[in-house]
Design a protein that fits this description.
CATH class: Alpha Beta
Family: Belongs to the class I-like SAM-binding methyltransferase superfamily. NNMT/PNMT/TEMT family.
Distance between the termini: 35 Å
Organism: Mustela putorius furo (European domestic ferret)
Oligomer: single chain
Helix content: 25-40%
Shape: globular
EC number: 2.1.1.28
Mean pLDDT: 93
Keywords: Acetylation, Catecholamine biosynthesis, Methyltransferase, S-adenosyl-L-methionine, Transferase
Region (Disordered): 1-23
Order of helices and strands: HHHEEHHHEEHEEEHEE
Length: 283
């Protein structure tokens, strides 16, 4: 999922590691609508502020896809949560997109938007903003139509399993690219678990493929309705080291400091990171 924000998603089913099992249990209280309100409605959802967190994230993604280097047939969004904004720039570059989340409530929220059903979150402000910064003359309706057409499936995922999508997944594997926003740090009880989760999702990516990773900096908790969820605090250095250990070349790493006006009491996030990393090809 995504927020300004960690995300509720990717998840972890109970297994031999009590840490991920405890996190999985805590996420059963996760409320998608509260999460969306906290992070994608004003003030954090105010895209008219050039220095806002929303425009910063959308700009990072749009600029990276505009290079033309991150493209191919298939893309998997790891731990989508109840959000789709992270794919608005991606959908022009991939024909087959897979959304994933650990929680059924989040997968249902995604389906509501994909089917344009009543009660779906309105992402049109985000779609308009992406069209504006991309500058291609595309309407927001065309943007959303293209994304809906290219999302082929919504699947369960557990990033704490060696096969995150399970055996026999219908997703085309290995994928040409992965996107993940506010997922790994939000569902990992410690740095070692964060590293293992990154290793696990990396198995879904082809050598030479690209990972675009957005996450929270130095955050320890966030609210999603009645749920107060723990986050493993990570800094820029930890993110870089984890990517290198998982076999990536870090192509770009940017950080954003959360301004006081956007520290609204729904979390203790200090900032956001954006990483573009490319999986190394074994020699």
């Amino acid at each position: 999922m995504s927020k300004a924000d960690p995300k509720p998603a990717a998840g972890m089913a109970p297994d031999s590691d009590p840490g991920p099992a405890a996190v999985a249990s805590a996420y059963q209280r996760f409320e998608p609508h509260a999460y969306l309100r906290n992070n994608y409605a004003p003030p954090r959802g105010d895209l008219s502020r050039p220095d806002g967190v929303g425009p910063w994230k959308l700009r990072c993604l749009a600029q990276t896809f505009a290079t033309g280097e991150v493209s191919g047939h298939s893309l998997i969004d790891i731990g989508s949560g109840p959000t789709i904004y992270q794919l608005l720039s991606a959908c022009a570059h991939f024909e087959d997109i897979t959304l994933t989340d650990f929680l059924e409530v989040n997968r249902q929220e995604l389906r509501l938007w994909l089917r344009e059903e009543p009660g779906a979150f309105d992402w049109s402000t985000y779609s308009r903003h992406v069209c504006l910064i991309e500058g291609k003359g595309e309407s927001w309706q065309e943007k959303e139509l293209q994304l809906r057409a290219r999302v082929k499936r919504v699947l369960h995922i557990d990033v704490h399993q060696p096969q995150p999508l399970g055996a026999g997944s219908p997703a085309p594997l290995p994928a040409d690219a992965l996107v993940s926003t506010f997922c790994l740090e939000a569902v990992s009880p410690d740095l070692a678990s964060f590293q293992r989760a990154l290793d696990h999702i990396t198995t879904l990516l082809r050598p030479g493929g690209h990972l675009l990773l957005i996450g929270a900096l130095e955050e320890s908790w966030y609210l999603a309705g009645e749920a107060r969820l723990a986050v493993v605090p990570v800094g820029k250095e930890e993110v870089t080291e984890a990517l290198v250990r998982s076999g990536y070349e870090v192509r770009d790493l940017r950080t954003y400091v959360m301004p006081a006006c956007l520290q609204t009491g729904v979390d203790d996030v200090k900032g956001i990171f954006f990483a573009w990393a490319q999986k190394k090809v074994a020699m």
